[in-house]
Design brief:
By secondary structure, the protein is of the alpha/beta class. The protein has twelve helices and 15 strands.
Length: 390
Amino acid sequence: MIADELRIVGSTQTNVVMEAELIRVARRALHVRPPAPRKEGLGQLVLPFDRDLAWAATTYLRTPTRVVWDVYRSRAERLEPLYDELAADVATDARRLFRDGDGISVEVRRVEAFAAGERQIVGTVKNALVDGARRRGTQLHVDPNRPATRWVARLDDRGELVVSIDLGGGSLSQRGWRREAGEAPLREHLAAVLLMLARFDPRRDVLVDPMCGAGTIAIEAVLAARAAPRPAPALAALGLQRAEAPPLFPDAAPLVVGCDVDLDALSAARDNARAAGIGAEITWQRADAAHLRPETIADIARERGRTAETGLLLANPPYGERLAADDPDALVDTYRSLATACRRFRGWRAAFLVGTPLFEEAFGPVVGRPRIKKPLANANLRAYFLLYDL
């Protein structure tokens, strides 16, 4: 069965954030408001496929992990009918899904309920694509290392096997600028989600990450403020690429400060920022989060011709996967010291992605209850987004 839907995939609990970013991008890049998406689960948006919207979503969205084009569906429960149906669909499909001589790769996800192993499903889908294209007079070959298009087969919640083209060519969280990961790095798309949830306004807010590590939050703050484009070679193979993809907000100049007490971490952050092309746009400051003061940030702002009257403290503090087990008191002391530092920033907001209830227990008596508490998965860890008014 031929399908034709644009699917935007993100982490759990990010549907609302992804939809808000999609509206912002579509209005700026296409001068239209996209149709209301169908929400599937807690981390997927589905819309009728539109070539322009597919280009804009793949090129500019920063909060999803993948953007895919659902092109075929099958209710087949065994490999033989799956092959027959998919090959017939490919042979009669007039859409431009590949070019003569293209290399393709196939992967599968969530197919445990199918009556065959993953490798068998991969082989069946691959053969159906190659044979169906041959019936149209088009030659395809398998190229797992540098394919023109990556195809994904998965079972949906209705038990149908959906075959999609990965428009981003892989995880959109891998921006290409990370040179040094540091310890327990925050995934890039999740940093963008945190910025959206905290309502970071680059026109008026100063952004400070008091525990910046490899600099992911600070770097994403600048790139997200500009809506910087991302290269997506698969778009060219599908005829969806445009000649130009400039930043949507090229004049955005947020004031961003990344702080860390570890010189190696700051060095890694600087290298990553240079790789992202924004080496001069972020101020890196050696500072212990417990001793961070508004006066320090005000001096930095003054040097850049700005003021620091309002802003956002945003961090992904240590979860204590090891420290909490060995010395929970030390982790609580770290959180309490951070809370004391945050209290100095009157009129600001503070937001955190935390993975242990110890944070809220230590932070609350000093700062108060969070205005927003939202579950948000961080990789395989259950975490929460907390937003405080200071």
